[in-house]
């Protein structure tokens, strides 16, 4: 995603601490009290501009959603969407997914969404792919038993890599679609990338997988 650097983004995030978590380390183990309920927590890693997370939060008021995004210039758009929708069940954090265990205790999260993650096609960059085994370990350490990963992408190579990576890790595949938009799957909420690539005719791949307790 080519995004203009927004030097004011940090200040804007700081103005809305009810939506943009300012000190995520302090939230570890306390998410139920932060949301004010014990609804399940679903996180999206690499949330981008937030269409998916805000759409999901509107559609599922009994789930709490947290968008994780490395780029403050990108996540500030997600913040604007949340402010406009006045949603009580969604927050964002401007952090690196490598550090998720600092922000969530074991079993605090029920589901991880990965949408259109950067493909990092070069073999030497494999460790940066969000479905690499070290990331699968991080997600496992914050998910409850039988927690799930739901993954969508337009990138066939990354999808094939992810099917192998998740299977080799010992996860069980629950759902695989090689053409989501023609699959009859109901309740799909589009991401920004999904809209852009599907309008250009790209096929969308999707999987659901669970960790085995
Ligand atoms: N999910 C959105 C969508 O489908 O429209 C955005 C997809 S974009 C290709 C990938 C996003 O993941 C970028 O905004 C990038 O900054 C973010 N990202 C990549 N690695 C990350 C990491 N380690 N931690 C948090 N965010 C990350």
Automatic annotation (TrEMBL):
Substrate binds at residues 122, 154, 191-194. CDD domains: AdoMet_MTases (cd02440). Keywords: Methyltransferase, S-adenosyl-L-methionine, Transferase, tRNA processing. Pathway: tRNA modification; N(7)-methylguanine-tRNA biosynthesis. S-adenosyl-L-methionine binds at residues 44, 69, 96, 118. One of its GO terms (molecular function) is tRNA (guanine(46)-N7)-methyltransferase activity. It catalyses: guanosine(46) in tRNA + S-adenosyl-L-methionine = N(7)-methylguanosine(46) in tRNA + S-adenosyl-L-homocysteine. Belongs to the class I-like SAM-binding methyltransferase superfamily. TrmB family. This is tRNA (guanine-N(7)-)-methyltransferase. It comes from Peribacillus deserti. The gene is trmB.
């Amino acid at each position: 995603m080519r995004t203009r650097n927004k030097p004011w983004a940090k200040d804007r995030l700081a103005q809305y601490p009810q939506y943009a978590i300012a000190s995520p380390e302090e939230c570890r183990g306390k998410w139920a009290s932060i949301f004010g309920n014990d609804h399940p927590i679903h996180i999206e890693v690499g949330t981008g501009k937030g269409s998916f997370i805000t759409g999901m939060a509107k559609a599922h008021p009994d789930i709490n959603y947290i968008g994780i995004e490395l780029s403050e210039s990108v996540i500030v758009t997600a913040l604007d969407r949340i402010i406009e929708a006045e949603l009580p069940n969604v927050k964002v954090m401007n952090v690196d997914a490598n550090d998720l265990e600092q922000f969530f205790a074991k079993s605090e999260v029920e589901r991880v969404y990965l949408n259109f993650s950067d493909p990092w096609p070069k073999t030497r960059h494999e460790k940066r792919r969000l479905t690499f085994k070290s990331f699968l370990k991080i997600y496992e350490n914050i998910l409850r038993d039988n927690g799930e990963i739901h993954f969508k992408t337009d990138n066939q190579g990354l999808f094939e890599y992810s099917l192998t990576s998740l299977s080799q890790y010992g996860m069980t595949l629950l759902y695989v679609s090689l053409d989501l938009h023609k699959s009859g799957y109901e309740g799909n909420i589009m991401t920004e990338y999904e809209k852009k690539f599907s309008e250009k005719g790209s096929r969308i791949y999707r999987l659901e997988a669970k960790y085995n307790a």
